[in-house]
Structure to design on (995 residues):
């Protein structure tokens, strides 16, 4: 009964209130996050994007965004700003996790129904949740809070950012984008013996029927409206699939209904590389662990060689280690760093605001004592929207005359 | 007993047979004769541990094993600062020189391997791995302290065997079985496609589990279990005393038995009839010396052969006892000798009461040798006024391999390696060391060690850490910051090593050390933790763990600094032999 009421209310709100208004409403729920004071952030190495590196670089942060980069910083702004000097450290774009539950498995899936594409993960967002606040300790500045793969069509993901867990400045997280991709699931988790579908073929058939219905009708509820957005190319689709059969089923649906899927998990993706390339599919990998099979550790480099866009995913606390293990198994560093930053932003269609430190992007960055892809580099701090959410404050000093230069990625 | 003429042919046959095969020793079986052209057993597949002995002078010199010179952009000896453009010279199994190129003399005809941009390190030392063990051994809950893991190691045929390719040239093999006492781990030297157990280090540590792992347990429940470990060393001194007493008793037995034999031999010699006198009926003939009286049991470790009594040796019936008597004047003397021999063979054993039937303790070995001691009060066969009593063979105490191992731990010959996770478990381990004055204690997987570091440092305990990769702990241990632990141990002066814990992670050993650097550990200390410090904890630092003259030629060459994630292994040598080379 409770669920039915929630569905009805959600349906009414989505019909009555425009998307822009809904976003504004969501933003209003967020405590103002950005710092009022300009910040001049400097370090011996600033990775604007994996292919753009500043040595002895500077960034000007204003209202939570990157206002200027390097030599573009006006002298007046430079003089007024508070200096944040990280000395010999490396500054990289904050890591982006393209899919995560933050431990809210139960609240991010409607267990009694398998098909709920219009439910929104933003409805379950808790800005003070411990797992959200901990993201900063792992260098993660943005996460796509995703409905659970327990449902065949679980709902819409939301982009969230961690707040500050510092004792001297506690601050809740923020909901950066309330409606992102539609999350589907053909994985074993979606096959439930207590309700339909109970099999992979049942799950595939359910999606096929609903996509067909959405394509052939103009009326229908909010669930079909979401599917029509997918068919119209205005909404991305993430599909949880691990095995060859599951991946094949996902690619079949994508081919038949003409959308470009992002496959989450994709444990056996190496068996379908040509299809992934042909259908322009993306991949969000699961956690890579030290005990993983060699084939699993080599998958990122195989995807890179085949030209399949991919990013690292899985457990937030293992995100950096996953990238390190992939480098150890043969992936080049530039691609690995890209798979932590810009690529997940691309797959989430959020590359205009996160994933790099270009002008007008969010001032979300992580600071390390060296290359973050080397484990001997100490994680010094994490900043979100120009606010330090993790790590100690560096020494403030007068800004030196900049001599920043741009270098191609890979020049170490 | 009357000697019958019908016995003569039988006795003759016996004498001839004895003469053919020569004198039999008194107690030990005759080793089989080795034909002069017998070949030596084939050399084992593993490399020999000792270099070949050069021939004696004047017999032609065998060529010395060719020297190998390794040049690298940077040499990291570990025992000293890094050397730019360094050189390591290896002859045979050992390093003969380390230094800067140009400062080190390069032997003539040496094989030179050059890695201009490479980094040369000592071969890595993995202080804990499960390599070369199978699932059966790892899950064996019936292991005890006497189990020797070295006896059950073998290749698994998968990448878990590739320690050498990862640069590991020494490894301590153990298993985390569910048993409490997990046997004795072994030191091995990984090789291309295999391994060899390090001679002399087959039993390199005694493993004890003092934890139930991360599963939910109540502190009181854990404390009850931990209290049970306090009795591990109980009864050891009594066991040691029993064995020592037995050894003393054996010596005493041997001495008394020798005296007993000597007395009776002397007596028999005195009873020898004069030449020409025929032996009276019933008397023993004089031509052949009387054999020694049959013993109740041979000395420890020896077994008797044949029926009846011991075969005498030397003049006591051996020199004459097993060889046919030389003919000295015809058939009558021969017949007399044969008659005497028959008398010996058919002599009744000394009378003694039948042994008491005493229940044997479980596991007690069978009594060695012959009849058990005569019960108290039994009269000796000899007359009271004729010589020493026949001594009774001392009964050996039941052998207990686990107690033997524990005694070696008490004596400082074998380290005790305890797996303990939580602070209360670690405290119990330290109390066990203190109570029993254990010289060598190594704590494994000491995740909660931060809370007890002062006690660890005070007791001189070493630590081996395996879970130092970031955020690698199970949920129940999330509060233990194991990545930061190495730095804390270093600050307290506690000897520690970083180990893989699993063959599957062999190639990640450098990354584990790098992770510790990222959490605050000094870079040199991190390198030491996977080389020299690990060798020190394993007791082999004089042979490996650093690039120093006299140590084994165990080296690893990489294409870039070891702690970088994309570091590639280019070359690995173990005792100067190439075990891996990148294509």
């Amino acid at each position: 009964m409770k669920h039915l009421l929630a569905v009805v209310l959600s349906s009414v709100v989505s019909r009555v209130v425009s998307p822009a208004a809904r976003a504004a409403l969501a933003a209003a729920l967020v405590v103002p996050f950005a710092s009022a004071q300009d910040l001049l952030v400097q370090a011996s190495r600033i990775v604007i994007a994996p292919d753009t590196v500043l040595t002895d670089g500077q960034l000007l942060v204003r209202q939570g965004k990157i206002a200027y980069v390097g030599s573009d910083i006006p002298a007046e702004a430079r003089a007024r700003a508070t200096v944040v000097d990280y000395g010999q450290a490396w500054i990289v774009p904050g890591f982006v996790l393209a899919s995560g539950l933050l431990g809210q498995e139960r609240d991010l899936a409607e267990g009694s129904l398998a098909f709920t594409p219009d439910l929104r993960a933003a409805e379950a967002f808790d800005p003070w949740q411990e797992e959200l606040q901990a993201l900063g300790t792992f260098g993660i500045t943005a996460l796509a809070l995703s409905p659970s793969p327990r449902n065949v069509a679980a709902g819409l993901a939301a982009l969230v950012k961690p707040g500050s867990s510092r004792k001297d400045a506690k601050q809740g997280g923020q909901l950066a984008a309330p409606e992102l991709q539609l999350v589907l699931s053909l994985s074993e988790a979606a096959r439930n013996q207590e309700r339909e579908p109970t099999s992979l073929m049942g799950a595939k058939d359910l999606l096929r029927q609903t996509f067909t219905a959405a394509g052939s009708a103009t009326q229908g509820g909010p669930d079909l409206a979401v599917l029509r957005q997918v068919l119209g190319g205005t909404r991305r689709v993430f599909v949880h699939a691990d095995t060859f059969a599951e991946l094949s089923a996902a690619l079949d649906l994508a081919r038949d209904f003409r959308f470009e899927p992002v496959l989450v998990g994709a444990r056996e993706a190496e068996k379908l590389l040509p299809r992934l390339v042909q259908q322009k599919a993306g991949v969000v990998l699961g956690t890579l662990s030290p005990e993983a099979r060699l084939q699993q550790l080599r998958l990122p480099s195989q995807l890179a060689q085949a030209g399949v866009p991919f990013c690292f995913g899985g457990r937030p606390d293992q995100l950096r280690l996953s990238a390190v293990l992939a480098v150890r198994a043969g992936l080049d560093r530039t691609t690995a760093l890209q798979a932590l930053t810009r690529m997940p932003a691309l797959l989430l269609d959020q590359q205009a605001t996160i994933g790099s430190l270009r002008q007008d992007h969010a001032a979300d960055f992580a600071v390390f004592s060296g290359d973050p892809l080397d484990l001997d580099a100490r994680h010094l701090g994490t900043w979100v929207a120009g606010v330090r959410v993790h790590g100690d404050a560096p020494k403030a000093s007068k800004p030196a005359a900049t001599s920043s230069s741009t270098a191609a990625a890979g020049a170490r | 007993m009357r000697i019958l003429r019908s016995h003569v042919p039988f006795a003759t046959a016996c004498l001839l047979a004895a003469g053919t095969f020569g004198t039999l020793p008194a107690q030990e079986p005759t080793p089989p004769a080795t034909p002069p052209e017998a070949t030596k057993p084939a050399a084992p597949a593993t490399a020999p541990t000792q270099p070949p002995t050069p021939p004696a002078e004047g017999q032609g010199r065998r060529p010395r094993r060719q020297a190998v010179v390794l040049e690298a952009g940077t040499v990291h000896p570990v025992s000293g600062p890094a050397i730019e453009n360094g050189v390591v010279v290896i002859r045979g199994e050992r390093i003969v020189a380390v230094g800067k190129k140009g400062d080190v003399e390069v032997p003539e005809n040496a094989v030179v391997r050059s890695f201009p941009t490479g980094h040369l390190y000592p071969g890595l030392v993995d202080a804990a791995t499960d390599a070369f063990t199978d699932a059966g051994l790892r899950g064996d809950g019936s292991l005890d302290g006497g189990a020797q893991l070295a006896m059950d190691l073998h290749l698994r045929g998968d990448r878990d065997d590739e320690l050498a390719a990862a640069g590991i040239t020494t490894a301590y093999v153990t298993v985390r079985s569910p048993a409490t006492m997990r046997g004795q781990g072994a030191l091995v030297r990984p090789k291309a496609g295999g391994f060899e157990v390090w001679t002399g280090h087959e039993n390199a540590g005694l493993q004890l589990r003092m934890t139930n792992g991360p599963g939910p347990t109540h502190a009181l429940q854990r404390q009850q279990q931990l209290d049970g470990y306090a009795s591990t060393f109980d009864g050891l001194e009594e066991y040691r005393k029993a064995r020592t007493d037995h050894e003393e008793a054996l010596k005493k037995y041997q001495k008394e038995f020798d005296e007993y034999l000597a007395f009776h031999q002397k007596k028999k010699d005195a009873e020898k009839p004069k030449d020409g006198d025929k032996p009276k009926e019933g008397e023993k003939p004089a031509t052949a010396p009387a054999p020694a009286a049959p013993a109740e049991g041979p000395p420890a470790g020896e077994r008797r052969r044949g029926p009846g009594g011991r075969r005498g040796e030397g003049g006591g019936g051996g020199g004459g006892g097993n060889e046919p008597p030389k003919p000295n004047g015809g058939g009558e003397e021969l017949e007399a000798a044969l008659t005497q021999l028959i008398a010996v063979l058919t002599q009744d054993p000394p009378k003694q009461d039948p042994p008491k039937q005493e229940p044997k303790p479980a596991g007690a070995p069978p009594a060695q040798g012959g009849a058990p001691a005569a019960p108290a009060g039994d009269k000796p066969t000899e007359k009271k006024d004729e010589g020493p009593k026949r001594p009774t063979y001392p009964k050996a105490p039941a052998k207990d391999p686990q107690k033997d191992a524990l005694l070696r731990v008490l004596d400082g010959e074998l380290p005790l390696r305890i797996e303990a996770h939580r602070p209360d478990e670690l405290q119990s381990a330290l109390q066990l060391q203190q109570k029993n004055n254990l010289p060598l204690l190594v704590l494994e997987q000491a995740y909660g060690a931060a809370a007890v570091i002062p006690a660890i440092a005070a007791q001189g305990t070493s630590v081996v850490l395996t879970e130092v990769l970031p955020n690698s702990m199970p949920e129940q241990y999330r509060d233990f910051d194991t990545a930061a632990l190495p730095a804390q141990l270093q600050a307290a002066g506690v000897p520690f090593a970083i180990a893989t814990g699993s063959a599957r992670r062999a190639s990640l050993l450098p990354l584990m050390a790098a992770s510790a650097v990222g959490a605050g550990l000094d870079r040199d200390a991190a390198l030491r933790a996977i080389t020299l410090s690990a060798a020190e904890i394993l007791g082999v630092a004089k042979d490996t763990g650093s690039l120093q003259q006299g140590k084994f030629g165990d080296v690893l060459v990489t294409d870039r600094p070891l702690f970088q994630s994309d570091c590639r292994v280019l070359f690995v040598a173990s005792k100067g032999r190439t075990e891996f080379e990148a294509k």
Remarks:
- The longest strand of chain B covers residues 111-122.
- Chain B touches chain A through 23 residues (CB under 8 Å).
- Residues 17-59, 285-329, 351-355, 359-380 of chain B have pLDDT under 50 and may be disordered.
